[in-house]
Amino acid sequence: MKLYLSVALVVLALAVLVESAPQDPTLTERFNNFQTQVETLTQDLTEKTKAAMEELHNSEFSVNARNWFKDTFENLKKQMDEAFANIKAQ
């Protein structure tokens, strides 16, 4: 009888100890937390990259470079048209 009573007390003590112990996150909770962190990181990175690309696209240097290339190409195109028009005329 004493053995049953002592085993019951030990089981009861272990149950109380397990219930009062702080719960560590399970593996599934850790993966979900990691997934949330990665999603947040990629979202922030995407937004920052998009903002940087827009700023670069609209910068004064970029606009001036595009205009210069456009003007140079137009001039080259005119010269080529004139040169080929002279060749066809002969």
Could you give the topology of this structure?
Blueprint: H1 2-20, H2 27-57, H3 60-89
Protein name: Apolipoprotein C-I-like
Signal peptide: 1-20
GO molecular function, one term: phospholipase inhibitor activity
Summarize the structure in words.
It is a single chain. The chain is mainly α and 90 residues long. The protein has 3 helices and no strands. The model has no long low-confidence stretch (mean pLDDT 85). It is found in: Secreted. It comes from Acipenser oxyrinchus oxyrinchus.
Mean pLDDT across residues: 85
> In percent, how much strand structure appears in the residues?
under 5%
Shape: rod-shaped
- So how many helices? 3
Structural class: mainly alpha
The biggest sheet, with number of strands, parallel, antiparallel or mixed sense and barrel status, is: none
* Unreliable parts: none
Number of strands: 0
**Residues in helix, %:** over 70%
Secondary-structure element string: HHH
The radius of gyration over CA amounts to 37 Å
- Calculate the terminal CA-CA distance, rounded to whole Å: 125 Å
GO molecular function, one term: fatty acid binding
Signal peptide: 1-20
Subcellular location: Secreted
Family: Belongs to the apolipoprotein C1 family.
Features:
90 residues, mainly alpha, ApoC-1_sf, rod-shaped, 0% strand
Summarize the structure.
By secondary structure, this protein is mostly helical. It has helices spanning 2-20, 27-57, 60-89.
